[in-house]
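Exam revision sheet. Question 4 asks you to relate a sequence to its structure. Input first:
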Amino acid sequence: MSSKKLNNALFLVLKITVSGFLLTFVLRKVGLQNILSHLRKMDLRFFFLSSLIFLLTIALASLRWGILLKNSQPMKKLFSLCLIGSFFNHFMPSAVGGDAVKVYYLYKETGHGGSSLGSVFLDRYVGYVALLSIGLISGIAGFNDLKALGLHWLMPALFILFLSGSLMFFGLRVGRRFTAIADFYDYFHNTLRDRRTIGKAFMLSLMIQVLTILEIEIISLGLGQHPSFTALFVFVPLIVTVMMVPISISGLGLREGAFVVLFGLTGITAETSTAISFLWFLSIMTGSLLGLLEYMKHGKTQ
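Answer key, structure tokens:
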């Protein structure tokens, strides 16, 4: 086994271990039977509505990606690649994530490594800036509630940390000696200078993030719960941030722990928070199944 394959295998084992440990901890704390009783109460109409809204976010993300690519690729192809990427993210517990799959197929289509990598990265980047913006503005709106919890500093600190990291990364231009990386930076900076393109991408990102929050609200309503403004518009951005840390399988364990801690601060019980987390994940997986069909179709056309 090559060193690269060995490292990938070890990293996968680490992710499985982290997810397993965290899920075991949450389930022991909450009680499996308590969670199952909540899951059985779920109104499936709300569950499938959440899945449909997730597919809408995929469509909007495809449109955003197309804008960042200067509309050089057909929307249908980008939607297909986004579905495939989502399928890989949620069903394939490997070192190959959905973004890597999207970069690979786009590179095969265009032959431009820098713009393929850069567009996928920028797509994620703009989306996360929108998410942080929602959390920051909502944190200001809910300042008194957050101050009572002692968390009024959290969103501003996260935003400043993200901004500082961005300035350092793009200022240093790490790896610019390599042609593909240099092309990546050129694409990134050239696109950032196009205010019209970035403006459109950012507005679409705001819509996507609000719809993602709506998915969780709908799942909660299906369980008879009504999360507060703080839980949805301040804590969900924090939960998504925690899920992005690449040390677990599809965020399993990290997501449930974050829901229990943060939603618990707003008065939602641990078992209910865990049920919301699981059902949200399952609704996304349900929508992502279309990615398997697209992957099979895509393979036949290669």
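Marking note for examiners. The chain has 13 helices and no strands.
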